[in-house]
Amino acid sequence: MDASDYFDPKQTPSVEAGISEMETRLLWKVSHLISGSMLHNDVIQTALGGVVDSVGCDVALLFLNKQESFELKAMVPSDFDFNLVPSGRYRVEECIWRMAARDGEPVYIFDIASDSRCTYRECKKSEILSVAAIPLKDTEGVQGVLGLASRTARDFSQQAAFLETLAAVISIGLKNSQQHEQVLRHAEKLEKEIEERAKAETESLYSEALLQSFVAKAPYGITRASITQNCILSANPAAVKLLGYDNEAQVQALRLNSDVYWQQQGRSNFLSQLPASGEFKGIEACWKRKDKKLITIRASGRVSRDPESADEGIIEGIIEDVTQQRLLEEQLLQAQKMEAVGRLAGGVAHDFNNLLMVILAQTELLLLELDGTSRRRTEKVVEVAKRAAELTGQLLAFSRKQTTLPTLTTLNKLVTGVSEMVQRLVGENIDVRVSLCDAAWPVMADRSQIKQVIANLVVNARDAMPNGGQLTLQTVNCKLDEAYPINHSIKLSGNYVMLAISDNGTGIPFETQEHIFEPFFTTKEQGKGTGLGLSMVYGIVKHHNGFIRLNSKPGDGATFKIYLPSVDAHEASDNLEESSAVSTAKRSTILLVEDDDNLREVIAEFLRMGGHAVILAEGMETACRVALEHRCKIDLLLTDVVLQDGNGNNLVARLLEQGCTFKVVYMSGYSPKAIVNHGIMNSATRFLQKPFSRIALLELIESTLSSEA
Q1: CA 641 to chain CA centroid, nearest Å
Q2: 323: Cβ–Cβ under 8 A, 6 or more apart, which residues?
């Protein structure tokens, strides 16, 4: 039996899906040549030349193991600058060829410059970067080494299946050549010749078993299925494992249309995609495992005839599980959709912030003039406008253009502020109960983001109680010791304030609980949830240096406990009260640059009320011109970050070039993160987030003017 008897890609699907068509043809060609001429030099040249072409390396070499040295049997191309001569023997110390021969395992090195295993100076003189060495093994040990080298970075391990299969075929050829030489050498001794032939036959059978083992150990499923009998005739261990069964017999007992395909018409759909030629590649279908789990498979192979049963409808296929790959593609598509929505939300929020700034500023000025009923109505307008400003902050957070802006607050205050919103979210058939601890410790938190956390958890609780129920919001001061576990590896201690949101709904299955905070994971029907809500909750809590725990049993409701670290009570009492007055700074000249006419007008009025002289400009060019007209006698520049004819950073540079000296305060409808993107934000940057109040503006102006920097 020779190599062609057991390596025929037209009859035996023994090549992994990872081996290309070019590589398969090379394997077949080398096997065929070996069968006809043993492993002569022309066969070796063909094999090495094919490796160079198919793998894309710079040189391929074949070494034979000669005890303490290597004989270079062949090198393609022969003129490669390796300072090696074919048929020469070389004593190579601890290089990769010796390692592969010594250990009998393939060696793949991506970068020899950073890998201490390769010390052969000729490699580095030839500027070789990536190398591979595959041992040529038989039952007696390592016969030699198939070597590859490339001057550019290549990950040869990606083609390990092809290279190791080719090495196995060459090993067979080497062994057959050795046997042939032995037969010729002892032709006159009949008994010895018979013994050698028997030995050669035994070893050939063993080699055939090795190739069959290759199929059995393949990482992809390999099956033979009968179209007429509606069953799987044979399946390798990978195919059995893919379907979730214990052995091949269980798989052979399955009916394809009802036990393997997810839907009964799935098999007919698959068969309808088979081309007339009988060879197919990359046809996908939905299968089901023994545990009823849906998997997506991709099949490649051919339709053939069974020589034993004359069944002309045999599908020989290589099966690959692409379930995870398809899931990732769906998640990527969803992420792209969310990114597009986020960009839109960010743009809308920025423009809306400018409008809100005008509304809040004008109403603030009105409040200085009104009293009685008119004042109360105007205060209502201010209250609603501030809620709208919080909404735009949430839009900016959704679009990832918002950074966390923590302030001293209490969870009691936050829960009280959203209680009406919670009742509107859950509806009348759910009883909302609020249980607040006495004197909850203060925390540093972004109010809008914590409200977003509460809203997400409340909506999930509502969905878990479709027929009504009870929802409880509770706060508790907690002192955690080091024995309190957050997860399997982390334990924390200290003072925390716990916010618990509990429902008596359907509960969460145990097998689902470990995945609920993963992005895009959802148990809701398609189109009913994005799978982002709880992942956003997890991210916000973690960003606040807190942690979240879930307690739930199926049918017994769920409780989410959010722990936020508390801050020092004395520090909180000193900072919780907002400033209500602005001291009068010395009269200063301020250059105000804002391209929105209404906004520029109202901000200017705020500044004049603070006793400042104001120079107005709608853009960068106008600002540079008026600065020159006033001979650069400007104490402070108040500018929007993004202008129609430039940006605030460029404006500052232009004015400095004109010889002006001034201090700077930036403002924007975007968040501070937007300034980072414009190359402006640093630890010393003075910034106002629109919309802002008159008091906030004048306080920052005063502190900036009085600062030394």
Answers
A1: 33
A2: 294, 295, 296
**Which tokens in the block code for residue 607?**
């500044």
Judge whether 264 and 282 are in contact, CB under 8 Å.
no
DSSP class of residue 95 equals S
pLDDT in tens, 637-688: 999 988 888 888 889 999 999 999 899 999 887 766 555 555 556 656 788 8
pTM as predicted: 0.36
The Cα angle at residue 201 between residues 199 and 205, in degrees rounded to 5 = 115
Supply the DSSP symbol for 158: G
**d(C-alpha 593, C-alpha 358), whole Å:** 15
Match 């390592």 to its residue by tokens: 142
Inter-residue contact 133 to 107 (CB < 8 Å): yes
Alpha-carbon span 347 to 632, nearest angstrom = 35
561, 542, 571: which is closest to 442 by C-alpha?
Answer: 571
- pLDDT for 676 equals 58
Amino acid (one-letter) located at 662:
F
Please give the single-letter amino acid code of residue 447: R
What beta strand segments (E) does 67-202 contain? 69-76, 89-90, 107-109, 130-138, 141-150
Per-residue tokens: 378 = 């105007």
Q: What is the pLDDT of residue 624?
A: 93
* CB of 470 closer than 8 Å to CB of 423: no
Return d(Cα 243, Cα 285) in angstroms, integer. 13
User: Residue 454 and residue 500: Cα distance in Å, rounded?
Assistant: 10
Task: Report CA 257 to chain centroid distance, whole Å.
Answer: 36
Residues lower than pLDDT 50 in the chain: 1-17, 400-402, 487-490, 526-531, 571-585
